[in-house]
Structure formats: structure tokens, C-alpha cells
């Protein structure tokens, strides 16, 4: 496990002042270019989920980087995948929740029929910062009367205390800063 985490950590690079001044952006794109690093992320998430959440029914990925890891994990687990997108990007009836990022305000939405009542859901994204996006995702899942088992992220910025916003929802992160 430590070998895989080291490989992933080496692929993450920081861009200062992006998208606005004062934000040290953690870029996971090099993980996607390295097949071994991408496999390591998927392996570690799969191992954690099989060990901790064998009852999972659905993986929900956040726009846009949750779309990169979520379908890979869902396929390995033999469960479905559903997206949560930025407002206005999904057709048909949707539900939405407004939230704040460390540098802006936004709204997340999901198709009304993406999650069924009673389903056990894991939410996946690339990064947990202030927790606004993952909190909004949890609220969308709860609106559909499904159960959020936990959240999975590649990177967690612990110094921003985003997991506190998620209250009792467990967060599994591969890399912490």
C-alpha cells in the first residue's frame, strides 16, 4: 500500500494562485498520464471499499474529476455510476443544492432518477478542500432518500478542515496535505 501511495503522491503537482490568488491548486492530471499511478488509485479505492463497504450499490462522481475515477471503481466493484454535475449540464428533471467553494459559489445537480430510495452510495472526487462540494453531494443523495456510506478522495487538504463540514460522513483520502 505504501508503495502505491508514494507513486500517487509523486504524480500530484501544485500550481500556486490557481484559479485565484492564494489558492495552491493540487493537480491530479499527471496521475491520468501514468497507467501505474491510475491503477494504484483504483486499486487502493477498491481495496478500501471491499473491506469497509461491501454493501455499496452505487458510486456517485462529482463533476468533473470524480468522473475520472468513479466509473473505473464502479466497474471493478460491479455497481453502477451516477454523475453530479454543475447546474445546467444535465437533461430532464433534476434536483440541485447550492454550496460554497474556497474561491466561489456554485450549484450542483443530479437527475431525479439517478439514485433510488434506499440505495447505499459512495461519493468520489479528486480533492476535498473546504467540503462544500462533497456536502452538497451528500445533501443531493439524502434528498433522494438514499444512504451515503462515505466519501472517497484522492487528495485531502486537512488544513482546510473540509471533513468537519461532512459531520458524521466518513472520508477516505489517499493523500493528505
Automatic annotation (TrEMBL):
It is an enzyme of class 2 (transferase). The keyword Cell wall biogenesis/degradation does not apply. GO terms for molecular function: adenine binding; adenine phosphoribosyltransferase activity; AMP binding. Residues 31-156 form the Phosphoribosyltransferase domain. NCBIfam families: apt, PRK02304.1-3, PRK02304.1-5. Belongs to the purine/pyrimidine phosphoribosyltransferase family. Catalyzes a salvage reaction resulting in the formation of AMP, that is energically less costly than de novo synthesis. PANTHER family: ADENINE PHOSPHORIBOSYLTRANSFERASE. Homodimer. This is Adenine phosphoribosyltransferase. It comes from Sinocyclocheilus anshuiensis. The gene is aprt.
Amino acid at each position: 500500500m505504501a508503495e502505491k501511495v508514494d507513486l500517487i503522491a509523486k504524480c500530484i503537482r501544485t500550481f500556486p494562485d490557481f484559479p485565484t490568488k492564494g489558492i495552491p491548486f493540487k493537480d491530479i492530471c499527471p496521475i491520468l498520464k501514468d497507467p501505474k499511478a491510475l491503477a494504484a488509485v483504483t486499486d487502493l479505492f477498491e481495496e478500501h471499499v471491499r473491506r469497509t463497504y461491501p454493501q455499496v450499490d452505487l458510486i456517485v462522481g462529482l463533476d468533473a474529476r470524480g468522473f475520472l475515477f468513479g466509473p473505473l471503481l464502479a466497474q471493478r466493484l460491479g455497481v453502477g455510476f451516477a454523475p453530479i454535475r454543475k447546474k445546467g449540464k444535465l437533461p430532464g428533471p433534476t434536483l440541485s443544492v447550492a454550496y460554497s467553494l474556497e474561491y466561489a459559489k456554485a450549484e450542483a445537480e443530479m437527475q431525479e432518477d439517478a439514485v433510488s430510495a434506499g440505495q447505499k452510495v459512495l461519493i468520489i472526487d479528486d480533492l476535498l478542500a473546504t467540503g462544500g462540494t462533497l456536502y452538497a453531494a451528500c445533501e443531493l443523495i439524502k434528498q433522494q432518500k438514499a444512504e451515503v456510506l462515505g466519501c472517497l478522495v484522492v487528495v485531502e487538504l486537512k488544513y482546510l478542515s473540509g471533513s468537519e463540514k461532512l459531520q458524521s460522513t466518513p472520508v477516505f483520502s489517499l493523500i493528505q496535505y
